[in-house]
Amino acid sequence: MAHIDYYFSFLSAWIYLADGRLEKIAEKHGATVSYKPFDLMTAFDRLGVPRPANRGEGRKVYRMQELKRLKAKTGLPMNVEPPFWPTNVAPAAYAVIAAQNAGGGDMGTLVNGLSAAMWRDDKDIAQDEVITEALKTAGFDPMLSMTGMLEGAETYPRNLEEGLAAGVFGSPFYIVKETDERFWGRDRLDMLDEHLATL
After folding, report:
1. pTM confidence score
2. Considering only Cβ atoms within 10 Å of each terminal Cβ, which end of the chain, N or C, has fewer?
3. Are 178 and 8 in contact (CB under 8 A)?
4. pLDDT for res 128
């Protein structure tokens, strides 16, 4: 059985635009997934990559055009300029980590739900009420947003270090553990699907 390490940040619109395809691909191939939220902005700093606000104007224009094109192509409801972006995504990341450790719910629903809260529903996922609602919808104990803060705070920076050591440089980033095959971006999910079919 294949295993996928999924490194992501809720600040990335591309995880929302992936629209749950990772979970469908994993189910198709009987693969398991470890969800590893990490601090994308700190990763950029460590890698010497400018943060989005500091990138050249051409890059900023291209990013916005690409988001609008993908919104139209996928048909997903989306605000390409959400009012709470960027926000402090650490509390949501902590809740994801705690939920994964606790079990009992659907991780894909949780992660995709929090992403949709930001990119579709104009909600601030730093707020406890938004996080607890996402936990509840995904079948987890909503109190994990509080009780899981310590384990989340310990694991979140560890995910960053593990990701950088594994070659992660963006979000979403998928690594197949058995082969160390790496896939960056939602537009590489078809290739991930094809790779898993060979295992």
Report:
1. 0.96
2. N
3. no
4. 96
